[in-house]
Design a protein that fits this description.
The chain is of the alpha+beta class. The chain folds into two domains: 250 residues, Thrombin, subunit H; 106 residues, Tumour Suppressor Smad4. 19% of the residues lie in helices and 34% in strands. It is built from four helices and 23 strands. The chain has a seven-stranded antiparallel sheet with strand order 8-7-11-12-13-10-9. A six-stranded antiparallel β-barrel has the order 1-2-3-6-5-4. It has a five-stranded antiparallel sheet with strand order 15-14-23-22-20, with no helix packed on it. α1 runs antiparallel to α4. The chain starts with a helix and ends with a strand.
Length: 402
């Protein structure tokens, strides 16, 4: 393989691989992860509460497959414990300001670990699922953010009128990983308050690593339960989710598409190179042909029609004959009903070097008697009694000297 050809293919390969790699390399940010966050609002009756319901609120986030509607919401059990224990109602708000919400039920819970998974009555595209990053892949030197809503010191009678634009992003670091009562936690230097309890702890790419949780005494603290503690307890065949590093269907389609594109481009380069090689061979052969006429100025020349409109006619060649349909530009003119003839098709000339023929950019081509198609604007030498035709052998001529 020639160096020029191989370098072109290498360039194309690199470009295609870059295109394939771009979607995998471009990640979401911590701020983008806010599009997964919801408000968890509960109402319940307590003993001695009379007719007045009690209420709590906190944060949750969507669990599911990337770029697909979601039906499950992860949160802290402390956000729903009162409603769960007192047969209360749980509402998942996508926008309190716009009153967009769904009632949810507890799908799975672990009170000791302070985590729960809620199920919506149907899948929704109101929120986007976060990609999950398991404990073993967590990079401690990365930047982390705890997402949730601002804490409210007022007594809760209804959910705060927040929208997704009100989600706060508190930034900091994981100081260490620890296990408390056989539950993996992240200790963080980010304040966890009553508003963002149950929200996600995400890395700089917006991947969720943990669920913000309360301290052992039930108050806000600086910890997050590792997301592994929830994932290992749910059936992925029922609750589908996306994990960092896994090959998704979208990525597989992209890779296959990129590979097909690469093969098509290489095939085009190979075919183009072969065509150029053949064209160069014809050009070299034409260039090596012996001069058609010696002492052309001392001889007479003409073109003899062999087939078609000019069959049997002898057309004198003094300097140049131009063949085509345009009577203003051509002196060998064809009617419009002759198929394949361009307005200005080709020219036959004679000079001190002899006879020659040139295709003038015709649509259907000019050919030598042996079937060789002329390259447009490429002058080809002719010998005495050489034949040529325009578009097809139905319009054939022969050059004559003497």
């Amino acid at each position: 393989m020639k160096r020029g050809k191989s370098s072109k293919i290498l360039t194309v390969v690199l470009c295609v691989m870059m295109v394939i790699g771009i979607p995998a390399a471009v990640s979401a940010s911590a701020r983008d992860a806010a599009e997964s966050v919801v408000i968890i609002y509960t109402e319940y009756k307590t003993e001695g509460g009379g007719s007045q319901n009690s209420a709590d609120w906190g944060t949750g986030f969507a669990i599911g497959e990337n770029n697909k509607p979601v039906q499950y919401i992860a949160t802290s059990y402390s956000n729903i414990s009162n409603a769960d224990k007192n047969a209360g109602e749980i509402e998942v708000y996508f926008s309190v300001a716009a009153n967009r919400f769904m009632r949810a039920e507890v799908y799975w819970k672990d009170e000791a670990k302070d985590i729960a998974l809620l199920k919506l009555p149907e899948a929704t595209d109101e929120r986007k699922a976060l990609v999950i990053r398991m404990n073993e892949d967590v990079e401690l030197d990365d930047a982390y953010s705890a997402l949730g809503y601002p804490a409210s010191a007022e007594a809760v009678t209804e959910p705060p009128r927040y929208d997704v634009s009100d989600v706060t992003v508190a930034k900091g670091n994981i100081t260490r990983t620890t296990s408390i009562d056989q539950t993996d936690h992240y200790e963080i230097d980010i304040e966890i308050n009553e508003g963002n309890i149950g929200g996600p702890l995400v890395n700089s790419k917006g991947e969720v690593v943990g669920i913000n949780t309360v301290s052992a005494d039930g108050t806000a603290g600086n910890k997050a339960v590792a997301i592994d503690e929830m994932i290992k307890n749910i059936d992925r065949n029922i609750v589908a989710y996306s994990v960092h590093g896994e090959l998704t269907t979208e990525m597989l389609i992209l890779i296959i598409g990129g590979a097909l594109l690469l093969m098509i481009v290489i095939a085009i380069i190979v075919v183009t190179t072969k065509k150029r090689s053949r064209a160069n061979a014809v050009k070299e052969e034409q260039a090596n042909q012996e001069p058609a006429v010696k002492e052309a100025k001392k001889t007479t020349a003409y073109v003899l029609g062999l087939n078609g409109k000019y069959e049997g006619q002898r057309i004198e060649l003094k300097n140049k004959l131009v063949f085509g349909r345009d009577s203003k530009k051509c002196n060998v003119v064809f009617p419009v009903d002759v198929a394949g003839i361009s307005a200005v098709h080709c020219a036959v000339s004679i000079d001190q070097n002899g006879l020659s023929i040139t295709d003038l950019g015709s649509s259907y081509g000019t050919f030598l008697g042996n079937g060789t198609k002329l390259i447009p604007e490429q002058k080809v030498r002719l010998n005495n009694m050489d034949k040529f035709y325009l578009a097809s052998e139905d319009c054939e001529f022969e050059v004559r000297l003497g």
